[in-house]
Structure formats: structure tokens, C-alpha cells
Amino acid sequence: MIKLPLLSNIYLRFLAINLAILLFTAPLVVLYGPFTNVKRSVVGAVMTSRHPQYLTWLLSEKEIKSILGEFNPGQPQQQLFQFARKEDESLRLINIKGTRFQGYLLEVPDPTRLKAATARDIQEIGDTVSTIALTNNAIAAINAGGFYDPQGTGTGRLPYGVIVHEGKFLVGGDIAGPVQIVGLTRSGVLVAGDYTVQEMKKMNLVEGVTFGPPLIINGKKLITEGDGGWGIAPRTAIGQRKDGTLLLLVIDGRQPGYSLGATLLDVQNILFEQGAYTAVNLDGGSSTTMFYSGQVVNKPCDMLGERMIPTAFIVK
Predict the structure, then answer these.
(1) DSSP string, the chain
(2) Which of 90, 162, 192, 266 has its CA 20 to 30 A from that of 26?
(3) C-alpha dihedral over 36, 37, 41, 42, to 10 degrees?
(4) Which pTM does this prediction carry?
(5) Around Cβ 239, how many Cβ atoms within 10 Å?
(6) CA 290 – CA 107 distance, rounded (Å)
């Protein structure tokens, strides 16, 4: 007769061995198996993070492109349009639902209420979207620009590109060449694309951060083939109707049974259907967060809830 303690040890060893096999083979099954959507979601999430090295030693550049596709439409010349500014303090929150995702869209009729705000010490540590909003007495906020995270600590520091607030370059004012920008001119026009610092100053950019890519320019969709090539993930984006109304969009993801996430094409189509004349992608993934009327309204996928980030677009 086998004694119970011995039997328990056998079961524990069996479970440990199977767990080790699962941990070892799971990445191979995801990357090389037949589950296309899972593969694209995982590869897209890693490649659009600041840690692509986790994949580039397993897959060649050609293999990654075959999984994700490519999105490189070039940058059409954006026409800065005019509109009559509305003295409208109302905001409207709309539920967004698709076959595999859920999210929220916030309408902001007066675009000059949108400001670029930063964590209190962006070179040392980031803040959550809600902290940035509350610190600045904002009614609403979404995460904005990207940041470097070389050690994978998730502390939300080291923003890259430019940060512009009230017409002043807080970060990146000395960059010589073109840089991606998402921002607003003094008259409230949303600007998206690659511009030099001098070009930004010439167009009177007063608020902005670095991220992209643009999705809709001059009323035309930029993704016309494929789905944008970034896989399925939580997304944050911003658009603008021709009457000046801003559209702040968050799509939750990486949460089976609730919301898996969206492609760039999904985001483009949502904003186009909502009337966007200009639209651009913002930092997504674990950073995707919307704060409104005193609380976080979406469900961030980070294990700790809200992720620490360097910048947010806030609505005063």
C-alpha cells in the first residue's frame, strides 16, 4: 500500500512537471500554433511595447510582418481647417461596443478645454491618469504620449519625443528633425503627423505629445488595406469633427469574456463613423485609461489597475 504522504508527493511532482512543460511550450504554441488571433494579439502587444527584444530573437522581421501586416501610408499634407468655437461646457460619454471589444467615447464640444498635462516628476516617476486629472482639477482625462521603460519597471518615467503645454516645449524643444505630434493649435485644431519643432511653432501648437500613427487626415481614412499591423490590444485615440468637437476614445482589451481589444482599423472606423475629420492613435495597452467625473470609467488591463504614465490629455 502506498502511503498518503508519498502519494501527495507524486501528485505534486506530476503537477510541477506539467506546469514546467506548459510554461516552456506555451510561447511556442502562441507564436507558431494555428491560433491566428491569439498570435496577432500577443505579437502586436509586444512589438508596440517598449520591449520588442522579447520577440525579435524568436521571430525574424519578415515573420513579424507576416503576422501583423504593415501600415505605412505616408503622411498626407494636413489641411488646418477653421470652425466657430462653441462656448459649450457639456460633455457626453458614449458606450462603444464591437464583436470583441468594449470601450467609451467622450465628446468635448469646446476643443480649447483640452490640455497636455504631465506627472509631477516625469523624469523620476509617472502618475496615474486619475492622479494627473485630480492634481489639475480636470473633469476628464485620457492617457496620452509614450515613454521608455528600459527595465520594465512600469514606473511611467522617461517620456520621448516632445511635450508641449501652453505653447512651451517642456520636453523635446531641441529636437532637430521631424517628430510625431498629437496636439492642438491655439484655435483648437487637432494636429497629427510628423513635424519639426519650427513647424509646430509656426502653426501655433499650444498643447501636444508624441505618439501616432495618424488614422484619418482631411476626412480620409489612412488604413485602406489590412488592419493597421499592430494586432489586437487596448487602444486610446483622439479625433476631431469638422465643427471642432473632440472625440476621446478608449477601448479595453486583454480581458477574455469582457473585451479582447481593437485593431488600429477598428479604432479608425469607430472614429470615422463618429464623424472624425482628423484622428490619431495614442499610447495604448496597459496605459489605456479614461477618467471622467471623479472616477475611472473603463477597465485598465494592468494588474495594479491604472498604470503610471508621464502624460495625459485632460479636459478642464
Answers:
(1) ---HHHHHHHHHHHHHHHHHHHHHHHHHHHHHSS-HHHHHHHHHHHHTTT-THHHHTTS-HHHHHHHH-------PPP-----PPP-----EEEEEE-SS-EEEEEEES-GGGEEEEE-TBTTTB-B-HHHHHHHTT-SEEEE---B--TT-------B-S-EEETTEEEE-TT--S-EEEEEEETT--EEEEEE-HHHHHHTTEEEEE----EEEETTEES--SSS-SS-SB-EEEEEE-TTS-EEEEEE--SBTTTB--B-HHHHHHHHHHTT-SEEEEE--GGG--EEETTEE-S---BTTBSPPBSEEEEE-
(2) 266
(3) -40
(4) 0.84
(5) 26
(6) 13
Low-confidence ranges of the chain (pLDDT < 70): 1-74, 151-153
Question: pLDDT tens for residues 224-280?
Answer: 988 998 889 999 999 999 999 999 999 999 999 999 999 999 999 999 999 999 999
Contact status, residue 207 vs residue 71, Cβ threshold 8 Å: no
What's the pLDDT tens digit per position in 142-157? 999 999 877 666 788 8
